[in-house]
Structure formats: structure tokens, C-alpha cells
Amino acid sequence: MGKRVALVLAGCGVFDGSEIHEASAALVHLSRGGAEVKIFAPNIEQRDVVNHLKGSPAEEKRNVLVESARLARGNIQDLAELKASEFDAVIFPGGFGVAKNLCSWAVDGKNCTVNEHVSSTLQAFHSAKKPIGLCCISPVLAAKVFPGCEVTVGQDKNVDGRFPDAETASAIAELGCKHICKNVNESHVDKANKIVTTCAFMCKAPLHEIFDGIGTMVQEVLKLA
């Protein structure tokens, strides 16, 4: 029987929601791994809406659950309904929506607050010793909720201009967590906390390398489940 995995989204679109390629890559690798997946998102208003063609704010309001339903092909549930007891693992793709909608990292950095349902979901899986997979910017959720954990967002220096957000690693360290430097096609496993992370689009890399890195994260999550 395949592992039961919950996938948590933050909207639809890199600048104000979930990064679509990351969500798709996670779903493809989970499917290949024989997992049974259910998708969730918080039923809240987005912090902002971005015109992805112009890269500028749009004067409108959107709902995170409704927008995430686009990625889920309509098959999605309110995050408030997620029960950790019904799953073997949980995975969070990245995208600015994580830093805007699931927490306030985009505005407050290491002083951010985490959405109550996101925090309770992470804590429930952690308490049950069930694995948590995070990619791109979403490892900051673990850094905020689990002081002392180990995560990666890639490199802690902007190596060859490929890691423009390398300062995120320093902010994670300031939260009392250990940042582990990894390449885009790798993931890091915090065995003590069963947290698996990979940097994905935190690195400027070809799409197939990001896809492969997410694949290693999914594989490690399924191994731990």
C-alpha cells in the first residue's frame, strides 16, 4: 500500500502563491513513488495579488484555497480539516505565497508569525514522528516552528550568482537552527526531526535540476514515512 501524503499549497503562482513547477514536480515524484496524495490549503485571503505578466501588484483580492484549487484540479480541502493521523507525511512546495500567506516571512523575516493551521499541522506531524518535506523558501516554516532543526535553502553565499537569496541561510541560523549547504539537485535530511529540505528555485538553475532536487526530497520523505 502506498504512503499517504498531504501536500499543502499557498495559492497559485510564484509571486503570490505556490510555485507551480515545484508543486507539479512534487506531485509527479509522489505519483512515481506510489503515494496516495491529498491536497490542502488554508481558507484565507492572500496577502497580496501580483500581475505575473507585469510583475506588479494588482488591485484585487484572492483566496488562497480557491487559487490553490487551480493546481489541485479542484480536488482540495481546507487545511483546517487536515488530520495528521490520516497521513504518513506532509510536503510543502515553495513560492512567495509561503512567505506571504502561510507566514509573514516576506515582510517580517525571522520575526515572522506562522499561520495557526500551518503551525498546528507542522507540530502534529512532528509530534507523531512523521516526516515533513519542504522546498524553496518553505524550510523557513520549520526553522520558525522547530528551533534547533536542520534545513537547507541551498548555499549561505551567492555562489556564482546562483543563490541571490543566500542571506536567508543567515536568518535561519539566527533562529537557532542549523543551515546545511546543499546543491540544487540535493536535499538534506534532519534525521532527528524527520525534516527533509531542498532549495529548488532558491537556486538559479535549469528546471530539470530543480525537478531532480525535489525528487530527492520526495524520495527521502517516502523512505522515512
CATH architecture classification: 3-Layer(aba) Sandwich
The CATH homologous superfamily is named: Class I glutamine amidotransferase (GATase) domain
As a percent range, the share of strand residues is 15-25%
- Give the helix level as a range of percent: 25-40%
Overall structural domain count: 1
Overall 3D form? globular
Number of separate helices: 8
**CATH topology name:** Rossmann fold
pLDDT averaged residue by residue:
98
Which parts are unreliable, with pLDDT below 50 for 5 consecutive residues or more? Answer: none
Tally of DSSP β-strands: 11
Write a structural description.
- The chain is α/β, with parallel strands linked by helices.
- The protein has a single domain, classed as Class I glutamine amidotransferase (GATase) domain (Rossmann fold, 3-Layer(aba) Sandwich), CATH 3.40.50.880.
- 34% of the residues lie in helices and 16% in strands.
- The protein is built from eight helices and eleven strands.
- The chain has helices at residues 20-32, 64-71, 96-102, 105-108, 116-127, 139-145, 167-174, 207-224; strands at residues 4-8, 36-41, 50-51, 56-57, 77-78, 89-92, 132-135, 150-151, 178-179, 188-190, 195-198.
- A seven-stranded mixed sheet has the order 5-2-1-6-7-11-10. A two-stranded antiparallel ribbon has the order 3-4. A two-stranded parallel sheet has the order 8-9.
- Helix 1 (20-32) links the parallel strand 1 (4-8) and strand 2.
- The longest helix has 18 residues, at 207-224.
- The chain is globular and about 45 Å long.
- The mean pLDDT is 98.
